[in-house]
Amino acid sequence: MIKLVKVNNYEEMSLAASQMIADQVSAKPDSVLGFATGSTPIGTYAELVKMYKHGQVDFSRVVTFNLDEYCGLPRECHQSYYYFMREQLFGHVNVPDNNVHVPDGMAEDIKKECENYEQRIFDAGGIDLQLLGVGLNGHIGFNEPDEVFYNKTRLVGLTDDTIEANARFFNDKKEVPTEAISMGIGTIMAARKIVLIAGVDKAEVVKKLEEEIVSPQFPVSILHYHPNCVVIAVQGA
Ligand code: F6R
Q1: Which domains does the chain have, with CATH numbers?
Q2: pTM over 0.90
Q3: Which end of the chain has fewer surrounding CB within 10 Å, N or C?
Q4: What percent of the chain shows pLDDT beyond 90?
């Protein structure tokens, strides 16, 4: 079931999402948090950094797992999701380095890396709260529209739409990796709570989500089957 919360602007969305994450960490200081990259969560991470600096949230026992990572980009590469997370959040708060998990897109054996990633999530006790953004085509993580819902973390090919949408972070569209490692739909659905944030740019996606038709051609729609999912969407979105 999705609880849809409409807010007036990006700032309100970021505040609401960061508050939910901070509440989760105060209720359970050793929470396992799932994080997303992209433009949408930047404000949420900035709010969390502010809260941390004001002593309102302590990440010292938190464990994190990111949704996805490009294949073929080393961690130091500015376009890697690992680098993004360090710039936006991890470099500014007290999450211990060893508690941070981002799939290794440079792994020699990608299949093994995917299996290990699932195992690490399991060993950590599962994800307590997963933050999600959504693609214009309804993807969550890099689970693109498809014939079926894929369950576990795996190697995915990115669609042309997604490559096009992500080209803004690269010098040239040709530099955008064509493959990534992504948590599967099952991995995401196993999180005990899901918070999806959608800016005004996702108005059409949220409207379609409200139709409540669940289909792998619109992967985000699976969230209707999640027992504890909040969508924070900017009005008009
Ligand atoms: C990022 C991710 C993607 C993004 C989605 C929206 O880790 O998994 O599903 O959440 O592509 O991206 P933005 O926020 O840039 O519109």
Answers
A1: 2-193 (3.40.50.1360)
A2: yes
A3: N
A4: 94
